[in-house]
Design goal:
Layout: E1 3-5, H1 6-11, H2 13-23, E2 26-30, E3 33-38, H3 41-51, H4 55-60
Length: 85
């Protein structure tokens, strides 16, 4: 992956896009710190789809279990009956 400085990426944006499409992801740095990655849309869609677990994976995965979701009942307080005259 090539590293582009932010000012170069802005000035040569069309070239950045073409390079990304032809050669793959490109890194853009700001003040010497790698900040973002520009990726082709197809690769982005694949990454996004792989990152989202399916329902089966969620249900069978090691996530939290809700074994006792109904709290125990305490003793009920009885109300005094209403007296009608």
């Amino acid at each position: 992956m090539a590293v582009w400085q932010l000012q170069d990426a802005k000035a040569r944006f069309s070239e950045l896009v073409e390079t990304t499409v032809k050669k793959g992801p490109q890194i853009v740095s700001r003040r010497g710190v790698e900040t973002v990655v520009v990726v082709p849309i197809e690769e982005w869609k694949q990454l996004k789809q792989r990152a989202r677990p399916g329902l089966l994976e969620v249900l069978l995965g090691p996530g939290p279990r809700f074994e006792n979701i109904v709290p125990e009942r305490g003793k009920l307080r009885l109300r005094k009956p209403i007296e009608f005259e």
